[in-house]
Known about the structure:
18% strand, 309 residues, alpha/beta
Amino acid sequence: MLFITNREPKGSIRTRIGRAYKFDLNKNSPSNSVFYCERKAKENYIEIGSEKLMSKLRESNAKQLLFFIHGFSNLPEPNIFPRVEKLQKYFNKKEHDLVQVVPLIWPCDNDFGIVKDYWDDQKSADNSAFAFARVLQKFMDWRDKAPEAPCLKSINIIAHSMGNRVFRETLSKWNKYDLANGVPLLFRNTILMAADIVNESLENGKAGRLISQSSRNVSVYYASDDLALRASKISNLKNKVASRRLGHTGPENMNKVQSNVYAIDCDNFNNKYDPPKGHSYFLDDGNGNIGIVFKHMFNTIKSGRVFVH
């Protein structure tokens, strides 16, 4: 499994191609450096560098790429990599060589106390934007560079929970520091899953507007009884931020978002797939049965169309 991270390794932060990469889980400050790596097995990672990682993506048999940005308080093991493995397994089960999933790993906290972790992770999410904006620029340069043929694979992104904050801020920083005429139409499908950002984020004049401008389709999956987002709202109230979350209600006003934004209400079944929190409801029912949200997400990625009933 290929992955990209701004989480610092143990030892030197200088890129060393071929070295064993070991996450330093006691450091949760975002690094300005970005590391392009491959996971060989559990706790077995190798730094391969950006050129080799992107060459592997180009040479992959997969027709489309899906970058996955995880939520808060998630560690590489046992949270992020097993989840991505499951995502990849389900995509392969539905159609082999359609999608390759690549996680983007940002530094969450691993201390105790849910509210403290949450607020620390918000700061980490915001500051990770500078590193991942560099990744986007490097990716654009690589995708179109000569003498190799341009990479024609469709690019998709799924951001879960606080990963939506990372994504929103990444586009904002990329637009501010690297682009002259706004963000390009880079993503075929953008999937905002249980998004832990305010529900006005996609409106004109808000930082999240760039999400819909950079995407052909934006699917917002939400559930009003998502208990993790209720805890998020409480934590934000403690810090004098009072607003409903996008993953709780969907967009505040659909008339104020672009026409390529689709809201999908998952309230009737989210707790079936992730009891009791109802927050990570996009995989299966806990017994290996692929869930309805994954099936909908798969059809969106395969067809390039979002069907909402």
